[in-house]
Structure formats: structure tokens, C-alpha cells
UniProtKB/TrEMBL annotation, chains A, B:
<keyword id="KW-0479">Metal-binding</keyword>
<dbReference type="InterPro" id="IPR006669">
    <property type="entry name" value="MgtE_transporter"/>
</dbReference>
<protein>
    <recommendedName>
        <fullName>Magnesium transporter MgtE</fullName>
    </recommendedName>
</protein>
<comment type="subunit">
    <text>Homodimer.</text>
</comment>
<feature type="domain" description="CBS">
    <location>
        <begin position="202"/>
        <end position="258"/>
    </location>
</feature>
<keyword id="KW-0129">CBS domain</keyword>
<dbReference type="InterPro" id="IPR000644">
    <property type="entry name" value="CBS_dom"/>
</dbReference>
<dbReference type="GO" id="GO:0005886">
    <property type="term" value="C:plasma membrane"/>
</dbReference>
<feature type="domain" description="CBS">
    <location>
        <begin position="136"/>
        <end position="197"/>
    </location>
</feature>
<comment type="similarity">
    <text>Belongs to the SLC41A transporter family.</text>
</comment>
<dbReference type="InterPro" id="IPR006667">
    <property type="entry name" value="SLC41_membr_dom"/>
</dbReference>
<keyword id="KW-0813">Transport</keyword>
<keyword id="KW-1133">Transmembrane helix</keyword>
<dbReference type="Pfam" id="PF00571">
    <property type="entry name" value="CBS"/>
</dbReference>
<dbReference type="GO" id="GO:0046872">
    <property type="term" value="F:metal ion binding"/>
</dbReference>
<dbReference type="InterPro" id="IPR046342">
    <property type="entry name" value="CBS_dom_sf"/>
</dbReference>
<keyword id="KW-0472">Membrane</keyword>
Length: 450, 450
């Protein structure tokens, strides 16, 4: 959403080096909107404007630009100014950014940071992509369990400006083991009894994530328990950091988008569609197209095998695409429904019997209906009304096959421990295509030989 | 995730009517886990256990059961107990629940609620599904702008136990107009200057949702601005309520799942896959299959039109499914990538030139590669190496057509103001099928007549 409303004024302020107005521009609006108004400026101009904001505000505004824009600014601007900005960014965001920069460039920035921040960055960089560790921030409100409500509030007011969230307070012992949590809401409601200690208030049955836990499993917990943040522990139950709700929304979006891409037989993209290299994109699509091509080759061999039938009854050829598409489409529908229901936690492996029962009923209804239309069409095209029966019978059989294959294959993949979304719709369609041809010719043999 | 670990003990406690242990069971664990442990119990047993929890805790635990389970409990249990539970539920959740119950049943529950709660429910029920109003809760921390930090904290501690979140304080004037917001984090950090008023602290450039705004647009704002909650205003800018982050995750999940279903030509399901009626499910799939069937009928007429060519060169028939699936698969990939990129905000309509340029390059690479494999196969099957050239040339042309159609059609739908995901993959494949056959026979005519 580029907003060009303020661009001329902003450029004029920059040309005049109008400190008062530029400072006001950086502080009055919501940080996200400030960033929006600057989107039409060049990287150098944005950077120039940002120098008029206080360091904390500067990194807040900077955080609202999209990642590609952030990277191009960091790559071009003076290293000392970059380091100053990086220092103020949220611990998890800055590590994500630095991961995308060249190692060389990072090595010029890191020495300019205070030693504590540097160590924090190095530790966070060491966690593998896709784990809880790679999502967490180390800025967390840690408090000792002996504090009273009032003391805790005072301590919190000292820590608050440094923290990303203060919506839960994490109660730790002297060895940094997580003992319990107190929500800010609880703390605030407890102010009537200012001498109650955190130990008395805290909830001890805390939902936690382990540092090497898969991000999708973490997102599931946060969603299921409606959390604002989840604490991340190491194997010794020491508190390492927290993962906040905004990162969880990103994980959910990423996971579902990847599913949609896998369902269409594309290896999920790691970068924006418009920014991914064309060779990489071709590769991610090409491997699947090649596999699908070899699967489809089987249809050519099958049809060649049925050469005699196809020459004797030439009209059968006309219906080939219609029949395989009916099978493929019903199969894709079933596969997509089963895959999305599994991702959404609506069905589990143990529901397979119910799923297949329901699919059987649905496929009978769908196949029956399409068969009736198919017969109406074939009636006018086939040599005789009895020959025309081949089409509806085939359509019914192919659509039942399609639905059952489409529903079963993702379940089988899940059972094998693979991602069910790998059982893509084109793959289901490819399998149903070849089965459809075999069914078609065999139904034709039965009907037409009478 | 049914957990059967505690079931025997729980049933024993119920049989003995062991108040002490049941009360402990309801309070010690995290509410979400308490619900999990009870999942194996019957509705009546769960209800019986819940009676041992304090009202607030009871509704919290109840909130963790899935919706179907909640409804079956509400439908069967004594109306006065149901009303007591409903009173304690979060304002937004209880309206969602009541919307699913029969009107008759709701009419027996409502009179048992305090008048204020009843009015609140009736107001929230009046907002249309899918709008900001239908997602919001009316439980919000409203404070006057003249309060100082310390007074605000005291007022907040009085309100906190009634509220779903206290992560932002909404500053209103005497007429309930929203003037600004203060985050709890800001408030807590301001305790060092206890006499600063909310007016001095508050951010006035607030991101808001209008009550009739579409839920997807609201979710986008919350995601873009990384909010924990967004205030909902009426057309006179009066503060009606807030929408919290957990409802936003639900909207994002719903939206992306619907996209995946539309991409596979299924009208999105409103209920869980295993719970939706089979007739409804067949209808949601059947209308698309019927439309697609009529589209596919065109292939039959096209092939009939080319009867002569297909009888003269019978081997051409064998490659029909292969060629149309290559076009369909590359088209589905392009369509899915464009649709998911639009949903994720990675591309806009104005990027259409770039998208088509990039798709052209990718389709040349993909088509070229598959054409080479295709020629290798056709070499052995076609009557002569020069006749075999029909296959690679067709594959290349069909895949370019597939990619460009797949990328263009969702953009056209978007331009027309329709949901791009309606341009489903089977639909793209259907269009590419018929174009593929026309291309195939015309390429064959050119090559084979030489």
C-alpha cells in the first residue's frame, strides 16, 4: 500500500533540512503509518528521514518496511549507523534480518555492537530454521518468585521499555528454571493485595515450547491455548526466551500457503513470488512436472495397448479428455478436502474409516448425477443408445475411483510419516487418469461386444 | 488430542462425589489441559465435573472444548445451569455459540441472564457474519483521558477481572468517542512519573476497524501493524468493542483454507469436514463438477471435429492425455502461485506485466525441458523421427499456454472484483485442455502434411 500523499512535502523538508518538521513527522503518526508514507522515497531518502527519529522509534519505523527493503537499506548505508539501528531492533527480528545478509557484511556490523547484544545475536543465529529457537526473542520479563505484587510491578516498570511484550511475567528461580507464570492482568488485579507474592499468584502448569520443537507444533499450542506468548525452554528447563503471537500468525500463514502450493505440485517458495530467481522457480516447478510427465506417459502406453478398440470404435476417443478430467477433478476435490481437514486438525488418521465411508456416499451421488448428464450427451454422439451406455457407466466408476484415491492417498502419506500435502492434486489426477483409461476401455469391451 | 490418562480416576471421583478432589482437578491444571483430560467423558459427566469449578473457571474450561461438543452440552443440560455458564463466557464467544443454537432454545436461556448481558448479546447478534462487529467483544478497558498513570492503574485493577485483555487501554471522552490508546507496557513504564495523565501519554493516531468492515481487511491491519487487539468503532467513531489476536488467527486460517478449497473447485465448507451433511457436501462439490463437465464437453466436440486426422494418424490419440495433463499441470502451478501471492499481499494487480514476463520465461524453460523428454519418447512411438516432432512442439506450445492462462485468469478475476481463487485449478485446466487439443491437431496438420 504505497501512499504518495506526503512525498513532495517530505522531499521538501529533506531539501531544506527542516529538523523540526522531520522530527514531528517521525513522532506524531503511528510508526506503521510513518513507514507507509515513506514507501515512495528512495532507500537513501528513507534513511535520511530516519536519522531524525529517536533510536528506539527509528528501529520501530524501520521494522514496518518489507524485508527486501530493509535488506537493501542495511546493505547500502554507513556501517556505524546500521549497527546503531540493529542494536535497537527486537532480538528475534534482527536475527532474521542478519540471516539474510552476506556473512561478510554481518562481520563488519557485529563488532560495532555491545558485547552482550553480539552474544545474543550469535546464540539466536545458531538455532535451525523452523525450530522454536529460530522464532523466539530473548527479551522477556523474568522475575523472582519471592517478589510481592507491588515489588513485581516496580521491577516490571524498570524492565518494560526494553521488552517486546510484558503480557506474561515469567517467574524463575535462581538458576533460571521456569517455575510459573503470572499474567499482567492477574498482577494488576492483585494490586488490592499488594503483599501477595508471585509464588502465591503464579500458575505452575505452564504450556511451554522446547527450543528444538518444530514451529508448527508451537503454533498449534499457541492457537489451542489462546496464548499471547509461549516460553521456550532448553532440555534442562531453563528459560531461554519467548515466542510472541505475531510470529505465530506468520507461521500459520506460511504453513497454509505452503500446503496450497504443495497441493498444486509446487515445492513451496522460500521468497516472495516476484523476487524468487526464475531458475529456482523453474526448478521447484520442473521437478514435479517431470515426475508428473513420466506418470502421464503410462496413459500413452495404455492407449497404445488398446489400439484395436480405439480404431474399431473411433467415437470412444472423443470422450477420453472428458472422462479423465471428471476423475481428476473429483479426485482433486477429495484430496484437497482431506489435506485441509488434516492441517486444520479436523480429522486424524484414525478417522480413515469414516472418511472413506463418507467419500463413498458422496462419490455415488456425484458420479450418479454426472453420469446422467453424460448419458444425455452420449445419446446423441454414440452410434446407438445402448452403445452410449459406456459413457455414464465409465463416468460413475471413474468418479468413485477418483474420490476414493483422492481421499486415501493423503491418508497413506500421513501414515508413512510424510507431509500429506505432497500427495498433490496433479499426482492424484495422474493416477486417476491411467485408472480411468483402463476402466473406460474395459467398460467399452463389455458393453460393445454384446 | 484425547487424553485418557485420568478417565478412570475422574469417573471414580464422580461416583464417590468426592468434592475435594474434583475441585482440585478443576483448579490445579491449566484450563486447556483440564478440558483435554475430560474429553473422553460423556457430556453429562463433563457437566457434572464442571459444577465443581468456580463460575469463572468453569466457563474458561468449557471454552476449550470444541464447538460441536459445547453445543451438545448446552442443548442437553438444565437451562438455569446453562444460563449461569453463558453469563461468564467471553462476550464474543458466547454470541458465536448462541448463533449456532436453535432460536427456541436461545429464547429460554436469555430471560435467565441479567438485563445488561442480555442486551449485550442481542446487540452483538445483530452484526452480519464476516464483519468486524461479529468478531468483537464488548469487554474493553475504557478510561477517561484526565486520569493520571497511578489512577489509571487503580481503575484498571478494578476492571481487570472482567476483561478478556488489558493489553491496551482505550481512552475515551465523555461521549464514548475514542481519543487515543495507551499500552499497558507504556502505563507500567510511566509509573516512575505517576502524575502524567493518560492524555499526555496516549497515542492518538490509532489503527481502528469500522463495525461493518470485512473481517479479512481487519485481519490484514492487525497483522500489518502487529497489534494485540484492534478497537471497533461505529460510523460516529464511538468505541463499540475490540477484536483480539486469537480471533485474527482464526480469520487468517479460515481465509487460507477457503482459498485452498476454492483452488480445488470446492465451495468452502462452513463446518468441519467430518460433520458437514453429505448432501451439502455433494452440492458444494457437484455444482463445480457440473460446470467443469460442460467445459470438458467442448473437448469431445473438438476431437469429433478432428475425426479425420485422428483416424489417419491413429498414434496421435495415444498422446492426448499426456499433452492435456502437461498443460493442465503447468497452468495449475501458475494459478496457485499467483493466487497465494495475491492473498499474501506479495503481488498487486498493477504487477501484471512483471508476472506475465516472468511466467513467459519460466514457461519457456519448463516447456523446453519437457519437450526434450517428450521428443525422446515420441521418437520410439511415432512412425518417423520427423513425425515425432509433433509431440515436443505441441508440449512447448501447450505449456506456455498453460502458464500464461494460469497466471492471467486469477488476475482477470481480481480485476473484475471477483475472488481470484474462484479461478480454480480445474477450471484453468479445463480451458487449457480444450486449447491443448486445438494446438495439438493444428501442429500435427502442419508437420504431418509435409
Amino acid at each position: 500500500m504505497t501512499n504518495t500523499l506526503f512525498l513532495p512535502e517530505l522531499r521538501e523538508m529533506l531539501a531544506d533540512n527542516n529538523r523540526a518538521e522531520l522530527e514531528e513527522f517521525c513522532t506524531t503518526l503511528n510508526a506503521g503509518r510513518t513507514a507507509e508514507f515513506m514507501e515512495g522515497l528512495s532507500d537513501a531518502e528513507v534513511w535520511q528521514v530516519l536519522q531524525f527519529a529517536q533510536p528506539e522509534r527509528r528501529s520501530e519505523i524501520f521494522g514496518y518496511f518489507d524485508e527486501e527493503r530493509q535488506l537493501s537499506m542495511l546493505a547500502q548505508q554507513p556501517t556505524d549507523e546500521v549497527a546503531e539501528l540493529v542494536e535497537e531492533l527486537a532480538a528475534d527480528d534482527r536475527v532474521d534480518l542478519l540471516q539474510q545478509l552476506d556473512d561478510e557484511h554481518v562481520d563488519t556490523i557485529l563488532p560495532l555492537l555491545p558485547v552482550e547484544e553480539r552474544r545474543d545475536i550469535q546464540r539466536l543465529r545458531s538455532y535451525a530454521e523452523g525450530t522454536a529457537g529460530s522464532l523466539m526473542t530473548t527479551e522477556v520479563a523474568k522475575l523472582a518468585d519471592r517478589l510481592t505484587a507491588r515489588e513485581a510491578l516496580e521491577e516490571l516498570s524498570r524492565q518494560a521499555s526494553e521488552l517486546e511484550t510484558i503480557y506474561y511475567l515469567y517467574v524463575v528461580d535462581d538458576d533460571n528454571h521456569l517455575r510459573g507464570i503470572v499474567s499482567t492482568r492477574q498482577l494488576v488485579s492483585s494490586l488490592a493485595q499488594p503483599h501477595r507474592t508471585l509464588r502465591e499468584m503464579m500458575e505452575t502448569d505452564v504450556v511451554v515450547a522446547m527450543v528444538d520443537e518444530d514451529q508448527e507444533s508451537v503454533a498449534e499450542k499457541v492457537e489451542h491455548f489462546n496464548l499471547l506468548a509461549i516460553p521456550v525452554l532448553d532440555s534442562g528447563r531453563q528459560l531461554l526466551g519467548i515466542i510472541t503471537h505475531d510470529d505465530v500468525i506468520d507461521v500459520v500463514r506460511e504453513e497454509l500457503t505452503e500446503d496450497a502450493q504443495r497441493i498444486a505440485a509446487v515445492t513451496p517458495l522460500e521468497r516472495d513470488f516476484l523476487r524468487i530467481g526464475l531458475v529456482t522457480l523453474s526448478w521447484k516447478r520442473g521437478i514435479w512436472l517431470t515426475i508428473l510427465f513420466f506418470a502421464a506417459l503410462l496413459t500413452a502406453f495404455a492407449l497404445r495397448h488398446y489400439e484395436l478398440e480405439l480404431e474399431t470404435y473411433a467415437w470412444l476417443v472423443w470422450f477420453i479428455p472428458l472422462i479423465i478430467s471428471a476423475g481428476g477433478n473429483s479426485g482433486s476435490q477429495s484430496a484437497t478436502l482431506v489435506i485441509t481437514a488434516m492441517t486444520g486438525g479436523e480429522i486424524e488418521l484414525r478417522d480413515w474409516r469414516t472418511v472413506l465411508m463418507r467419500e463413498s456416499v458422496v462419490s455415488l451421488m456425484l458420479g450418479g448425477f454426472i453420469a446422467v448428464i453424460g448419458y444425455a450427451v452420449a445419446f446423441f454422439i454414440a452410434p446407438s443408445p445402448s452403445d452410449a451406455l459406456v459413457i455414464p457407466l465409465t463416468l460413475l466408476a471413474v468418479m468413485i475411483t477418483g474420490c476414493l484415491c483422492g481421499a486415501t492417498l493423503p491418508l497413506v502419506f500421513k501414515r508413512l510419516g510424510l507431509d500429506p500435502a505432497l500427495m498433490s492434486n496433479p499426482f492424484v489426477a495422474g493416477i486417476v487418469d491411467i485408472m480411468g483409461i483402463v476402466i473406460y476401455i474395459n467398460v467399452a469391451r463389455m458393453i460393445l461386444s454384446n
